[in-house]
Design a protein that fits this description.
Two copies of one chain form a homodimer.
Chain A lengths: L3 H25 L6 H8 L3 H8 L2 H22 L8 H18 L3 H11 L8 H24 L8 H17 L1 H6 L5 H24 L7
Helix pairs in contact in A: 1-2, 1-4, 1-6, 2-3, 4-5, 5-8, 5-10, 8-10
Chain B binds a DNA duplex through helix 1 and helix 3.
DNA sequence: GCATGAATTAACAGTATTGTTAAACAAGTC
DNA sequence: GACTTGTTTAACAATACTGTTAATTCATGC
């Protein structure tokens, strides 16, 4: 059995590498993040990175596995089967998504980078992603169609509602770096901006579906 | 005066480099596009690239200058002062933007890459961008506020309407590579999808402002 | 033809990248 | 104290990238 000291030493280096990797991948994407800089930030020689994780790709998968697992959990949690109205159900899901994105502000940017520049790295998630999406569709599509056919909400397809949500939610967080760097907003201003977008996204969706503000029931 | 042959030769190489550069920058962004590959695609040695354009940065500026100039033109054209309703005015601007993006499907991705990974390259456009945006705000903000105060449309700030438009429009084209590669849609399916998104974005905006479908005047 | 000047090539410098490896080190076990 | 095991370092290989430069080609004007 390993001694505490040995164990701690190993754990420290290994975890330092993992934390630096996650931070750098989230910042720079896959291709632009270098093992050299990861090692520099973790305070170890770059050979250690290969000793513990073999290749850059392996460590990237560890980072992405963790983050995507959390995202998937969050999306699944949004498919509650509580006995509430369609809107309450949908709103709950969107709010969970927005709260997840708020806690993982750099993740969408990373996913975009990878999908754009190294799509082969996402193949290992394709099956589970398709499963999740078809689960999502199965859960909400029927309910939406009922809501539309019964005349309780305006006509819209599941596909378009899905993209309304995705484009508004995801791209808000993709544009975050621009808020900081280009528009030179400080963190507090960014937070306030995000809160306003959060409310507006919900508001837009309710107007789209029901033609009026949520509060004016 | 240069002979035709000399002129042609020069023009051919120079233009071949420029075309290959634009294509590769649009595909890979600034940092991941290499002068080596630009030269390879243009069918010339990579020294020629430096001979005609000195540095990678210089050629990138040439590409971006051209594209941003076109974008700015398009946005300015969207600020028509025709004597039409606020909605017709706004809708015209959004349609022009969407049509521009449709003709420059990779530009948003490039801008995102640069803003994220090489923001210093955008400094030279900061002043003109701010001018454009303040012109845009000056043009529409007052009209929107009138529309809201008069009760002709639902309450909304210019800022939120702006972001509703930007996030839905831009990110639709940012997600295009995913449609092709991840969702494995062919070009025809992508075109049909874009058309549906085009209509839906206009529809969403009209619901957001007026609480009903555009056609149900 | 030949001199001129632009266009082109091939080779090089300098730097950075990922990954490997042999040797050194540390610490506990027998 | 010698042995074993896991950890760390420094040096190296192989490749790629940006940019420069000296030498060469080439069309053209004289």
């Amino acid at each position: 059995m390993n001694s505490d000291k040995l164990n701690n030493k190993k754990t420290n280096t290994e975890e330092a590498i993992m934390e630096a990797s996650e931070a750098l991948f989230l910042e720079k994407g896959y291709l632009l993040a270098t093992t050299t800089e990861i090692a520099r930030r973790a305070g170890v020689t770059h050979a250690m990175l290969h000793y513990y994780y073999r290749t850059k790709e392996q460590i990237f998968f560890k980072v992405l596995d963790k983050n995507l697992h959390e995202l998937f959990q969050s999306v699944r949690a949004g498919m509650s089967s509580e006995e509430v109205s369609f809107w309450e159900n949908l709103k709950g899901g969107v709010m969970l998504l927005l709260e997840f994105l708020d806690q993982h502000r750099q993740l969408v940017g990373l996913l975009y980078d990878v999908a754009r520049h190294s799509p082969e790295l996402l193949e290992r998630y394709q099956e589970s992603t398709l499963n999740l999406l078809s689960g999502l569709a199965g859960h909400h599509k029927v309910l939406l169609d009922q809501e539309v056919r019964s005349g309780r909400c305006n006509p819209i397809t599941f596909e378009q509602l899905f993209w309304d949500i995705v484009t508004m939610s995801f791209s808000t967080y993709m544009f975050l770096p621009l808020m900081n760097r280009v528009a030179k907003m400080d963190d507090l201003e960014v937070d306030r901006m995000l809160k306003r977008r959060y409310d507006e996204i919900i508001t837009v969706l309710h107007y789209r579906l029901y033609g009026k503000h949520e509060s004016s029931n």
